[in-house]
Specification:
With 194 residues, this protein is α/β, with parallel strands linked by helices. The chain has one domain (4-172): Purple Acid Phosphatase, chain A, domain 2 (4-Layer Sandwich), CATH 3.60.21. Helices cover 13% and strands 19% of the residues. It contains two helices and seven strands; from the N terminus they run ββαβαββββ. Strands 1-2-3-4-6-5-7 form a seven-stranded mixed sheet, with helices on one face.
Length: 194
């Protein structure tokens, strides 16, 4: 298992190992070909979240959830993606199936205050996920935040495209082209605790 855990006061951290191999990321069934975390790590994460008494549950992933990150390696087939998202705005497919299963588990077990910290792109951004988003094709989850943290010395690159499968809304992104910030999502009871 390549994951780790740590608890500090009211916060529990779970670090995932998600770079397990590349594939076209379009499978329609959740199987080993669609796995990004793998069965043992996904089960470990579910049980860790379920048992946690921490107020905040922080999941750290080296790959962003809905940012479309195409694999530009010339040795990889065109249409291969590095992260969870596959750029298809429809129902979950490929690695998104594993994420959908996790989000559905979190909702079914009423696990509150789950926050994602992700990386891999060279800019910072906050994304708010809500099942009530009109863009969401998968809605069996509780609202949550994803904070994308690029390297500390990164430039302000234009934001990646967003795959709308889970209905994310950009909360903060600075584009090199516009140098402007996008609007914040509406405040709800699930976001006021911040």
């Amino acid at each position: 298992m390549h994951a780790s855990r740590r608890t500090r006061g009211p916060t529990a951290y779970r670090k995932l190992r998600s770079r397990c191999g590349w594939d076209p990321n379009v499978q329609k069934d959740l199987n080993q070909d669609a796995a990004f975390l793998g069965t043992s790590q996904l089960d470990w994460l579910k049980q860790s979240l379920k048992r946690s008494k921490a107020t905040w549950k922080v999941i750290a992933s080296d790959m962003p959830i809905s940012l479309v990150v195409p694999d530009l390696n010339p040795d990889m087939p065109k249409g291969t993606f590095e992260a969870w998202a596959n750029g298809d705005p429809g129902a979950p497919a490929g690695r998104e199936l594993e994420l959908a299963a996790l989000l559905k588990f979190i909702k079914a077990n009423k696990i509150q205050n789950v926050v994602w910290v992700t990386a891999d792109v060279h800019y910072a951004q906050a994304l708010y996920y809500s099942p009530s988003s009109p863009k969401a094709k998968f809605t069996e989850f509780l609202p949550f935040w994803e904070f994308v943290a690029g390297p500390i010395n990164a430039g302000t690159y234009p934001p990646n495209d967003i795959d709308p499968t889970f209905g994310p809304k950009r909360s903060s992104a600075v584009s090199r082209r516009t140098r402007s910030r996008t609007a914040h999502p509406p405040r709800t009871s699930s976001t006021t605790a911040w």
